[in-house]
Design a protein that fits this description.
- By secondary structure, the protein is mainly alpha-helical.
- Helices cover 66% and strands 3% of the residues.
- The protein has one domain.
- It has a two-stranded antiparallel ribbon.
- Strand 1 and strand 2 form a beta hairpin.
Protein backbone atom coordinates (compact mmCIF):
# COMPACT_ATOMS: atom_id res chain seq x y z
CA UNK A 1 0.00 0.00 0.00
CA UNK A 2 1.48 3.32 -1.05
CA UNK A 3 0.45 6.35 0.96
CA UNK A 4 0.45 9.88 -0.34
CA UNK A 5 3.39 12.00 0.68
CA UNK A 6 2.82 15.03 2.84
CA UNK A 7 1.61 18.14 1.12
CA UNK A 8 4.11 21.01 0.96
CA UNK A 9 1.57 23.37 2.57
CA UNK A 10 1.14 21.05 5.54
CA UNK A 11 4.92 20.69 5.91
CA UNK A 12 5.52 24.44 5.75
CA UNK A 13 2.68 25.20 8.18
CA UNK A 14 4.01 22.61 10.63
CA UNK A 15 7.52 24.07 10.35
CA UNK A 16 6.11 27.55 10.95
CA UNK A 17 4.00 26.69 13.99
CA UNK A 18 6.46 24.29 15.66
CA UNK A 19 8.68 26.97 17.26
CA UNK A 20 5.63 29.03 18.22
CA UNK A 21 4.04 26.05 20.00
CA UNK A 22 7.29 25.22 21.79
CA UNK A 23 7.92 28.80 22.92
CA UNK A 24 4.34 29.28 24.10
CA UNK A 25 4.50 26.03 26.08
CA UNK A 26 7.78 27.09 27.71
CA UNK A 27 6.24 30.49 28.51
CA UNK A 28 3.33 28.79 30.30
CA UNK A 29 5.73 26.58 32.29
CA UNK A 30 8.06 29.40 33.32
CA UNK A 31 5.24 31.79 34.29
CA UNK A 32 2.98 29.14 35.82
CA UNK A 33 3.72 30.08 39.41
CA UNK A 34 2.45 33.65 38.90
CA UNK A 35 -0.26 33.23 36.26
CA UNK A 36 -2.93 30.73 35.23
CA UNK A 37 -1.41 27.56 33.87
CA UNK A 38 1.69 25.96 35.18
CA UNK A 39 3.93 22.99 34.77
CA UNK A 40 1.30 20.49 33.68
CA UNK A 41 -0.41 22.69 31.12
CA UNK A 42 2.84 24.02 29.69
CA UNK A 43 4.37 20.55 29.53
CA UNK A 44 1.43 19.28 27.52
CA UNK A 45 1.67 22.28 25.18
CA UNK A 46 5.37 21.63 24.52
CA UNK A 47 4.73 17.92 24.00
CA UNK A 48 1.92 18.66 21.55
CA UNK A 49 4.51 20.23 19.26
CA UNK A 50 5.53 16.64 18.50
CA UNK A 51 2.23 16.26 16.70
CA UNK A 52 3.21 19.12 14.40
CA UNK A 53 6.36 17.24 13.45
CA UNK A 54 4.25 14.16 12.76
CA UNK A 55 1.70 16.06 10.69
CA UNK A 56 4.37 17.78 8.65
CA UNK A 57 6.98 15.10 8.20
CA UNK A 58 5.60 11.73 9.26
CA UNK A 59 6.26 9.23 12.01
CA UNK A 60 9.72 8.36 10.73
CA UNK A 61 10.91 11.90 11.35
CA UNK A 62 9.43 11.90 14.87
CA UNK A 63 11.26 8.70 15.82
CA UNK A 64 14.47 9.98 14.24
CA UNK A 65 14.36 13.37 15.99
CA UNK A 66 13.44 12.37 19.53
CA UNK A 67 15.12 9.72 21.65
CA UNK A 68 12.53 7.91 23.73
CA UNK A 69 15.23 6.49 26.03
CA UNK A 70 16.75 9.91 26.74
CA UNK A 71 13.32 11.45 27.41
CA UNK A 72 12.42 8.65 29.82
CA UNK A 73 15.73 8.99 31.69
CA UNK A 74 15.45 12.75 31.99
CA UNK A 75 11.84 12.38 33.14
CA UNK A 76 13.18 10.43 36.12
CA UNK A 77 15.70 13.19 36.82
CA UNK A 78 12.84 15.74 36.88
CA UNK A 79 10.97 13.59 39.41
CA UNK A 80 14.06 13.39 41.63
CA UNK A 81 14.57 17.15 41.33
CA UNK A 82 10.98 17.79 42.46
CA UNK A 83 11.32 15.54 45.51
CA UNK A 84 14.68 17.04 46.51
CA UNK A 85 13.31 20.59 46.29
CA UNK A 86 10.23 19.53 48.27
CA UNK A 87 12.49 17.97 50.91
CA UNK A 88 14.36 21.27 51.34
CA UNK A 89 11.41 22.40 53.45
CA UNK A 90 11.80 19.40 55.75
CA UNK A 91 15.55 19.91 56.04
CA UNK A 92 15.06 23.55 57.04
CA UNK A 93 12.52 22.64 59.74
CA UNK A 94 9.40 23.50 57.71
CA UNK A 95 6.80 21.35 55.99
CA UNK A 96 7.23 19.11 52.94
CA UNK A 97 6.69 21.20 49.74
CA UNK A 98 6.79 24.40 51.77
CA UNK A 99 7.34 27.40 49.51
CA UNK A 100 10.18 29.47 50.90
CA UNK A 101 12.63 31.90 49.37
CA UNK A 102 16.10 30.76 48.32
CA UNK A 103 18.95 33.19 47.69
CA UNK A 104 17.33 36.38 48.99
CA UNK A 105 14.16 37.53 47.22
CA UNK A 106 15.05 36.17 43.81
CA UNK A 107 14.01 32.52 43.78
CA UNK A 108 11.14 30.69 45.44
CA UNK A 109 11.02 26.93 45.63
CA UNK A 110 7.62 26.91 43.89
CA UNK A 111 9.30 28.21 40.73
CA UNK A 112 11.76 25.32 40.67
CA UNK A 113 9.08 22.76 41.50
CA UNK A 114 6.85 24.14 38.75
CA UNK A 115 9.69 23.85 36.24
CA UNK A 116 10.38 20.26 37.33
CA UNK A 117 6.70 19.36 36.89
CA UNK A 118 6.67 21.02 33.45
CA UNK A 119 9.67 19.04 32.25
CA UNK A 120 8.36 15.81 33.76
CA UNK A 121 5.00 16.18 31.99
CA UNK A 122 6.63 17.22 28.71
CA UNK A 123 8.96 14.21 28.71
CA UNK A 124 6.22 11.79 29.76
CA UNK A 125 3.64 12.96 27.23
CA UNK A 126 6.30 13.04 24.50
CA UNK A 127 7.20 9.41 25.25
CA UNK A 128 3.53 8.47 25.08
CA UNK A 129 3.07 10.30 21.79
CA UNK A 130 6.13 8.63 20.26
CA UNK A 131 4.77 5.22 21.29
CA UNK A 132 1.32 6.00 19.87
CA UNK A 133 2.73 7.39 16.64
CA UNK A 134 4.99 4.36 16.22
CA UNK A 135 1.86 2.20 16.03
CA UNK A 136 0.70 4.37 13.14
CA UNK A 137 4.10 3.92 11.50
CA UNK A 138 3.54 0.23 10.74
CA UNK A 139 1.72 0.86 7.47
CA UNK A 140 3.69 3.94 6.50
CA UNK A 141 6.29 3.59 3.77
CA UNK A 142 9.65 5.31 3.59
CA UNK A 143 8.68 6.96 0.33
CA UNK A 144 6.39 9.32 2.24
CA UNK A 145 9.22 11.40 3.67
CA UNK A 146 11.22 11.67 0.46
CA UNK A 147 10.90 14.77 -1.68
CA UNK A 148 10.59 14.83 -5.42
CA UNK A 149 12.85 16.92 -7.65
CA UNK A 150 10.45 19.87 -8.14
CA UNK A 151 9.11 19.87 -4.60
CA UNK A 152 9.61 23.33 -3.02
CA UNK A 153 11.54 23.80 0.20
CA UNK A 154 9.96 25.68 3.12
Amino acid sequence: MKLKKKNVIVRCAADLFLPLAAVFGCYVVFHGNTSPGGGFQGGVLVASAILLVYLGHGAGQVKGSFSEKLLHSSETIAEIMYVLIALLGVFTGLNFCFNFVLFGKQLETSVLMNDAVGYHVMAGITCLLIMMLSTLDRGEGKEENQREEGDPEC
